[in-house]
DNA sequence: TATTGTTATACTCTATAACTATA
DNA sequence: TATAGTTATAGAGTATAACAATA
């Protein structure tokens, strides 16, 4: 889209945001994890014990898609499914110690990523940027910490 | 990715950017155009007469992918392929009057989209946001007006 | 009969590589 | 032999819908 001169805020946001997402995906590939898997891991850590249906609903994705993501994390021992004894249909999702350790590494990578992306802004400018982006996110109905890319479009 | 509290700049950028891109795609669907088609249309308008190979290289996509995009725009009469008489292998890409008209509508939609996305910022804040984003884009090697989503990852 | 999780199927998007026409 | 453009094939990712287990 080479349309406006200079480009508008929305185009810049989309372009820089796509770049940020691509660079983050590159960095975490080192851990053999994808951004969707990491988003799920973070959500399970933040609110453990939820059913797959509940988590899928929060992320705005079909439950069938969640199965594969949980499989990948469970195969590696980062999360576990615990059957509810009173209603054996439910699989409560919990993070493991290995999962917590992985989240620690991810947080470090995230900070490095943040610094590299915003190295052309000083610390006060970064704060201003975060303020503006948070305000837009809230105004646009984005839930904090949930990437809208999960949603059905 | 619900990892940091509060979320870092990179995550906010990726989330807000994905939201911006999704809303823009919704708006231009009314014209029966997709964002990649629009990006190509804008590039052809900005530098007409280039070969498909050259355009594919600028956008960072395989030439085979460009064929389908050009087909879609040419079928609708928005662009045209002109064979180079001295080297008949080359197809120079040009925008048509209908293509220019479509770009006009797209620009209007883009401004509306920009206003809706940034309605929680005043005009001076929007200017600051554009400044910061432009600086990040330049620092990160993003070429002005080219969406990095075209690139091979 | 309703609900949770899973699997099966089909569809979209894309890259790679084969092909053609021109040089 | 080399290059521009095109077509064919195959792979990834995803949604929809069918299915099995449990209530």
TrEMBL record, chains A, B:
It holds the Pfam family MarR_2. Signal peptide: none annotated. Residues 1-138 form the HTH marR-type domain. InterPro entries: HTH_MarR-typ, MarR/SlyA-like, WH-like_DNA-bd_sf, WH_DNA-bd_sf. PANTHER family: MARR FAMILY REGULATORY PROTEIN, TRANSCRIPTIONAL REGULATOR, MARR FAMILY. This is HTH marR-type domain-containing protein.
């Amino acid at each position: 889209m080479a349309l406006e001169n200079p480009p508008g805020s929305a185009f810049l946001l989309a372009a820089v945001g796509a770049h940020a997402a691509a660079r983050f995906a590159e960095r975490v590939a080192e851990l053999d994890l994808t951004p969707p898997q990491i988003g799920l891991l973070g959500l399970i850590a933040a609110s453990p014990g939820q059913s797959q249906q509940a988590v899928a609903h929060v992320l705005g994705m079909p439950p069938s898609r969640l199965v594969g993501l949980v499989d990948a994390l469970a195969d590696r021992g980062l999360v576990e499914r615990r059957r509810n004894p009173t209603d054996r249909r439910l699989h409560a999702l919990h993070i493991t110690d290995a999962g917590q350790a992985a989240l620690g590494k991810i947080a470090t990578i995230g900070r490095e990523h943040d610094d590299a992306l915003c190295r052309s802004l000083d610390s006060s400018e970064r704060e201003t940027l975060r303020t503006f982006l948070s305000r837009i996110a809230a105004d646009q109905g984005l839930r904090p910490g949930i990437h809208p890319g999960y949603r059905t479009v």
